[in-house]
Specification:
single chain; alpha/beta; Uridine Diphospho-n-acetylenolpyruvylglucosamine Reductase, domain 2; 4-stranded mixed sheet; two-stranded antiparallel ribbon; 6 strands; 12% strand
Protein backbone atom coordinates (compact mmCIF):
# COMPACT_ATOMS: atom_id res chain seq x y z
CA UNK A 1 0.00 0.00 0.00
CA UNK A 2 1.43 3.36 -1.07
CA UNK A 3 1.20 6.27 1.38
CA UNK A 4 -0.23 9.49 0.01
CA UNK A 5 2.66 11.90 -0.40
CA UNK A 6 3.05 15.61 0.11
CA UNK A 7 4.89 17.19 -2.83
CA UNK A 8 8.51 17.83 -2.01
CA UNK A 9 8.71 21.10 -3.90
CA UNK A 10 6.60 22.94 -6.46
CA UNK A 11 6.69 21.14 -9.82
CA UNK A 12 8.73 23.90 -11.50
CA UNK A 13 11.41 23.76 -8.80
CA UNK A 14 11.47 19.98 -8.90
CA UNK A 15 11.82 19.98 -12.70
CA UNK A 16 14.71 22.44 -12.45
CA UNK A 17 16.39 20.32 -9.77
CA UNK A 18 16.06 17.15 -11.87
CA UNK A 19 17.46 18.98 -14.90
CA UNK A 20 20.45 20.15 -12.85
CA UNK A 21 21.00 16.63 -11.46
CA UNK A 22 20.94 15.12 -14.96
CA UNK A 23 23.36 17.79 -16.14
CA UNK A 24 25.71 16.86 -13.27
CA UNK A 25 25.38 13.07 -13.39
CA UNK A 26 23.97 12.18 -16.79
CA UNK A 27 22.36 8.73 -16.74
CA UNK A 28 23.30 8.36 -13.05
CA UNK A 29 20.37 10.68 -12.21
CA UNK A 30 17.13 8.86 -12.89
CA UNK A 31 13.42 9.53 -12.70
CA UNK A 32 12.54 6.07 -14.04
CA UNK A 33 9.61 4.52 -12.18
CA UNK A 34 11.46 1.24 -11.55
CA UNK A 35 14.37 3.08 -9.89
CA UNK A 36 12.05 5.25 -7.83
CA UNK A 37 10.02 2.21 -6.69
CA UNK A 38 13.19 0.35 -5.68
CA UNK A 39 14.24 3.33 -3.54
CA UNK A 40 10.78 3.78 -1.96
CA UNK A 41 11.34 1.32 0.89
CA UNK A 42 13.75 -0.82 2.86
CA UNK A 43 12.90 -4.17 4.42
CA UNK A 44 10.48 -2.78 7.01
CA UNK A 45 6.71 -3.09 7.23
CA UNK A 46 6.28 0.64 6.52
CA UNK A 47 4.35 1.54 3.38
CA UNK A 48 6.59 2.59 0.45
CA UNK A 49 6.99 6.27 -0.41
CA UNK A 50 8.78 7.09 -3.68
CA UNK A 51 11.42 9.75 -4.22
CA UNK A 52 11.10 12.06 -7.22
CA UNK A 53 14.59 11.20 -8.49
CA UNK A 54 17.43 8.77 -7.71
CA UNK A 55 21.10 9.74 -7.97
CA UNK A 56 24.17 7.48 -8.02
CA UNK A 57 27.22 9.58 -7.10
CA UNK A 58 30.77 8.29 -7.45
CA UNK A 59 32.53 10.80 -5.20
CA UNK A 60 32.17 13.05 -2.18
CA UNK A 61 32.34 16.02 -4.56
CA UNK A 62 29.30 14.72 -6.49
CA UNK A 63 27.39 14.23 -3.22
CA UNK A 64 28.24 17.81 -2.30
CA UNK A 65 26.96 19.08 -5.66
CA UNK A 66 23.72 17.06 -5.27
CA UNK A 67 23.21 18.67 -1.86
CA UNK A 68 23.81 22.14 -3.31
CA UNK A 69 21.14 21.46 -5.95
CA UNK A 70 18.80 20.16 -3.25
CA UNK A 71 19.30 23.31 -1.18
CA UNK A 72 18.90 25.64 -4.15
CA UNK A 73 15.57 24.11 -5.19
CA UNK A 74 14.43 23.18 -1.65
CA UNK A 75 14.05 19.47 -2.44
CA UNK A 76 14.50 16.93 0.39
CA UNK A 77 17.34 14.38 0.28
CA UNK A 78 17.14 10.77 1.42
CA UNK A 79 20.41 8.78 1.71
CA UNK A 80 20.14 5.15 0.55
CA UNK A 81 22.67 2.40 1.25
CA UNK A 82 21.97 -1.31 0.88
CA UNK A 83 18.20 -1.00 1.20
CA UNK A 84 18.24 -3.27 4.25
CA UNK A 85 16.73 -0.72 6.64
CA UNK A 86 14.16 -1.96 9.14
CA UNK A 87 13.40 1.54 10.43
CA UNK A 88 11.66 3.05 7.38
CA UNK A 89 14.12 5.94 7.15
CA UNK A 90 14.74 5.44 3.40
CA UNK A 91 11.07 6.03 2.57
CA UNK A 92 10.71 9.39 0.82
CA UNK A 93 7.68 10.62 2.74
CA UNK A 94 7.87 14.04 1.05
CA UNK A 95 9.35 12.95 -2.27
CA UNK A 96 12.77 14.34 -2.97
CA UNK A 97 16.13 13.03 -4.13
CA UNK A 98 17.29 9.57 -3.09
CA UNK A 99 21.10 9.47 -3.05
CA UNK A 100 22.14 5.85 -3.56
CA UNK A 101 25.65 5.52 -2.13
CA UNK A 102 26.32 1.90 -3.17
CA UNK A 103 28.56 2.96 -6.07
CA UNK A 104 30.83 4.73 -3.58
CA UNK A 105 32.20 1.37 -2.51
CA UNK A 106 35.98 1.66 -2.30
CA UNK A 107 38.16 0.70 0.63
CA UNK A 108 40.53 3.66 0.44
CA UNK A 109 43.12 2.72 3.06
CA UNK A 110 43.93 -0.16 5.40
CA UNK A 111 46.39 0.50 8.22
CA UNK A 112 46.80 -2.58 10.46
CA UNK A 113 49.50 -0.75 12.47
CA UNK A 114 46.99 1.71 13.93
CA UNK A 115 43.89 -0.48 13.53
CA UNK A 116 42.36 2.02 11.12
CA UNK A 117 40.50 1.66 7.83
CA UNK A 118 39.12 4.42 5.58
CA UNK A 119 36.14 3.47 3.43
CA UNK A 120 33.45 5.08 1.31
CA UNK A 121 29.83 4.87 2.52
CA UNK A 122 28.79 2.13 0.08
CA UNK A 123 31.30 -0.48 1.29
CA UNK A 124 29.57 -3.52 2.81
CA UNK A 125 30.62 -5.41 5.91
CA UNK A 126 31.32 -8.49 3.77
CA UNK A 127 33.42 -6.47 1.32
CA UNK A 128 35.44 -4.91 4.14
CA UNK A 129 36.12 -8.25 5.80
CA UNK A 130 37.39 -9.68 2.48
CA UNK A 131 39.87 -6.80 2.24
CA UNK A 132 40.87 -7.25 5.89
CA UNK A 133 41.51 -10.98 5.42
CA UNK A 134 45.10 -11.86 6.42
CA UNK A 135 45.71 -8.48 8.10
CA UNK A 136 44.75 -9.60 11.59
CA UNK A 137 41.80 -7.18 11.55
CA UNK A 138 38.09 -7.88 11.24
CA UNK A 139 34.88 -5.89 11.33
CA UNK A 140 32.82 -7.96 13.76
CA UNK A 141 29.52 -6.04 13.78
CA UNK A 142 26.88 -7.91 11.78
CA UNK A 143 23.41 -6.35 11.54
CA UNK A 144 22.52 -8.92 8.86
CA UNK A 145 21.92 -8.62 5.17
CA UNK A 146 24.19 -6.84 2.74
CA UNK A 147 24.34 -3.70 4.88
CA UNK A 148 26.58 -0.81 3.89
CA UNK A 149 28.89 0.76 6.45
CA UNK A 150 27.38 4.18 5.72
CA UNK A 151 23.91 2.84 6.50
CA UNK A 152 25.18 1.10 9.62
CA UNK A 153 26.73 4.33 10.87
CA UNK A 154 23.60 6.32 10.04
CA UNK A 155 21.26 3.99 11.93
CA UNK A 156 23.60 2.79 14.69
CA UNK A 157 23.00 -0.75 13.47
CA UNK A 158 24.80 -3.41 15.44
CA UNK A 159 23.00 -6.70 14.90
CA UNK A 160 21.95 -9.52 17.15
CA UNK A 161 25.47 -10.52 18.17
CA UNK A 162 26.15 -7.32 20.11
CA UNK A 163 24.93 -6.29 23.52
CA UNK A 164 24.49 -2.58 22.85
CA UNK A 165 22.96 -0.61 19.99
CA UNK A 166 25.69 1.92 20.60
CA UNK A 167 28.32 -0.58 19.42
CA UNK A 168 28.41 0.64 15.82
CA UNK A 169 28.42 4.30 16.83
CA UNK A 170 31.29 3.68 19.23
CA UNK A 171 33.29 1.79 16.63
CA UNK A 172 32.77 4.43 13.92
CA UNK A 173 33.46 7.29 16.30
CA UNK A 174 36.68 5.62 17.38
CA UNK A 175 37.66 5.32 13.74
CA UNK A 176 36.42 8.69 12.50
CA UNK A 177 37.10 10.94 15.50
CA UNK A 178 40.71 10.03 16.22
Amino acid sequence: MQNPQVMSAPAEQLDSAVEALKSLLGARASTALVQREHHSHGESYHAPAMPDAVCYPHSTEEVSEILKISAKYQVPVIPFGGGTSLEGHVNALYGGISIDLREMNKVLRVSPEDLDVTVEAGVTRQQLNKVLNNTGLTFFIDPGGESTLGGMAATRASGTNTRSRAATASMFCTQLCT
